[in-house]
């Protein structure tokens, strides 16, 4: 099964795989995850301050030392040292225990059970009739679901939106601990990553980047009971949200997919845990994406995105193939912007959708490097704001656009791409260092 990804919106809710996104820091992520780590780090109203950066530096000093050691030792020794705090994935479909007791306690507060809500029970009866599910089973699941006040708070738009800042956003993901974890992950699962790249045409660095940004390679998959989170958003979505009706309808569909998924796989819908928007597993798939794109990549007859890293790797690759990943095509090009304001406005109007040829972009004042000038496909000018500083710009290809189908944010896509590229470069450096010894 596969679940869509979540994307943040200025309005206070991430879009789930396929719903337009305003390409700024959203408040709730709901694509292939309920709410990914990327979404959590940039909820509106939570500014990333210099003080936070200092804490991060001290926190990751051990990782910095570790990376230094990597460059000085043989590759086998290096991999052994990198493998710090790796999640262990057993091949059994069961709920994960929350990693942080304080987080667990803060999320434990629940409202009334939906057994008392006629609207919810009637929805369950109609679902059972329409999908030929056992009515008693559906009724028992809906009756056991509880309203989570914390979930409604998390998806309610902030009154103090966070300003876009690519430099700050990048620092949260392209950092020593995540890079070290990515190196260890790539080393341990190199064969599955290579197999996925061969079958689906999606580079290993993109898959590694996605899993690193989404859940830090399985370390943060969410501790909300998915049944509660989806029921809350399906029946008690906050009406203060500017798109409340559309979002509530979406989450009713996701709750339906979730019940179909668990029934078809003989899983207990009351036990699985994920993000507060209902995203699941290492890749944080929403239920609908799970059912559409997840694959049994380890060949054991079951799809398990929590406990089978191979299934997670293959499912991410399959997701991108479904969204027309072009094998061998780059994701971005560097660019120098010297356009007049009117020309720049014209170039930015399509947002992240590749629209212009290289020749058209040059005629509108962009200075393209030779490889971009010869690129035959369509391109988009991507603006990455840096708070009060000057914005950064890159050219995005069709493959950049494909990455944004996982989460409809250019900031997210750049974090995935740059994390994957950084880990790939470090891995290649380690190989060269080992060969030279």
Descriptive account of the structure:
This protein is mainly alpha-helical and 437 residues long. Among the domains are: 114-158 and 221-322, Helicase, Ruva Protein, domain 3 (Orthogonal Bundle), CATH 1.10.8.350; 332-396, no CATH class. Helix content is 51%, strand content 6%. It has helices spanning 37-41, 50-59, 61-72, 75-82, 101-107, 118-131, 135-144, 149-155, 166-173, 176-188, 190-200, 204-215, 226-235, 244-264, 287-293, 309-322, 341-348, 358-363, 370-373, 398-404, 410-436, and strands spanning 224-225, 273-274, 332-334, 336-337, 366-367, 380-386, 389-396. A three-stranded antiparallel sheet has the order 3-7-6. The protein has a two-stranded antiparallel sheet with strand order 1-2. Helix 13 packs antiparallel against helix 14. The protein is globular.
What topology does this entry show?
Blueprint: H1 37-41, H2 50-59, H3 61-72, H4 75-82, H5 101-107, H6 118-131, H7 135-144, H8 149-155, H9 166-173, H10 176-188, H11 190-200, H12 204-215, E1 224-225, H13 226-235, H14 244-264, E2 273-274, H15 287-293, H16 309-322, E3 332-334, E4 336-337, H17 341-348, H18 358-363, E5 366-367, H19 370-373, E6 380-386, E7 389-396, H20 398-404, H21 410-436
Antiparallel strand pairs: 1-2, 3-7, 4-5, 6-7
What labels would you give this structure?
437 residues; mainly alpha; Helicase, Ruva Protein, domain 3; three-stranded antiparallel beta sheet; two-stranded antiparallel ribbon; 21 helices; 51% helix
Q: Over the alpha carbons, how many angstroms does the gyration radius reach?
A: 22 Å
- Total strands: the figure is 7
CATH architecture of the domain at 114-158 and 221-322: Orthogonal Bundle
Largest sheet: 3 strands, antiparallel
Globular, elongated, flat, extended or rod-shaped: what is the shape? globular
Low-confidence stretches: 1-92, 95-107
Q: Beta fraction of the residues?
A: 5-15%
Question: Distance between the terminal alpha carbons, to the nearest Å?
Answer: 45 Å
Structural class: mainly alpha
Order of helices and strands: HHHHHHHHHHHHEHHEHHEEHHEHEEHH
CATH superfamily of the domain at 114-158 and 221-322: Bacterial muramidase
Going across the major beta sheet, what is the strand order? 3-7-6
Number of helix segments?
A: 21
Oligomer: single chain
* Mean pLDDT across residues: 82
> Fraction of residues in helices?
40-55%
CATH class of the domain at 114-158 and 221-322: Mainly Alpha
CATH fold field value of the domain at 114-158 and 221-322: Helicase, Ruva Protein, domain 3
């Amino acid at each position: 099964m596969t679940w869509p990804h979540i994307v943040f919106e200025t309005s206070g809710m991430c879009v789930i795989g396929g719903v337009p996104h305003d390409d700024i820091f959203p408040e709730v992520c709901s694509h292939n995850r309920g709410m990914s780590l990327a979404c959590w780090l940039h909820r509106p109203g939570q500014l990333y301050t210099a003080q936070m950066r200092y804490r991060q530096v001290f926190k990751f000093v051990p990782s910095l030392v570790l990376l230094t050691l990597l460059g000085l030792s043989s590759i086998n020794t290096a991999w052994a040292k990198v493998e710090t705090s790796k999640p262990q994935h057993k091949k059994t479909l069961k709920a994960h225990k929350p990693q942080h007791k304080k987080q667990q306690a803060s999320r434990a507060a629940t409202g009334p059970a939906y057994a008392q809500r006629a609207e919810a029970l009637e929805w369950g009866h109609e679902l059972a009739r329409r999908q030929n599910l056992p009515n008693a089973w559906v009724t028992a699941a809906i009756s056991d679901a509880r309203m989570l006040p914390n979930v409604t708070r998390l998806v309610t738009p902030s009154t103090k939106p966070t300003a876009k800042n690519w430099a700050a956003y990048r620092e949260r993901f392209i950092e020593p601990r995540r890079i070290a974890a990515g190196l260890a992950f790539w080393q341990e699962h190199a064969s599955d990553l290579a197999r996925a790249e061969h079958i689906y045409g999606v580079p290993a660095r993109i898959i590694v980047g996605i899993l690193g940004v989404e859940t830090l390679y399985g370390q943060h998959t969410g501790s909300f009971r998915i049944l509660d989170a989806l029921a809350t958003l399906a029946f008690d979505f906050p009406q203060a949200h500017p798109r409340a009706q559309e979002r509530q309808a979406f989450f009713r569909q996701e709750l339906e997919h979730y019940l179909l998924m668990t029934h078809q796989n003989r899983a207990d819908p009351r036990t699985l845990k994920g993000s507060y928007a209902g995203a699941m597993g290492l890749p944080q798939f929403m239920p609908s994406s799970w059912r559409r794109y997840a694959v049994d990549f380890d060949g054991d007859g079951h799809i398990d995105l929590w406990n089978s890293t191979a299934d997670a790797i293959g499912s991410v690759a399959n997701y991108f193939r479904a969204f027309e990943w072009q094998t061998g095509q780059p994701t971005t090009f560097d660019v120098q912007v010297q356009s007049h304001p009117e020309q720049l406005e014209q170039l930015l109007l399509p947002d992240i959708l590749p629209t212009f040829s290289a020749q058209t972009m040059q005629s509108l004042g962009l200075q393209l490097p030779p490889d971009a000038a010869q690129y035959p496909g369509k391109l988009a000018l991507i603006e990455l704001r840096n708070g009060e500083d000057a914005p950064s710009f890159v050219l995005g290809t069709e493959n950049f656009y494909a990455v944004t189908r996982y989460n409809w944010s250019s900031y997210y896509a750049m974090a995935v791409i740059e994390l994957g590229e950084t880990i790939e470069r470090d891995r290649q450096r380690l190989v060269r260092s080992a060969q030279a010894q």
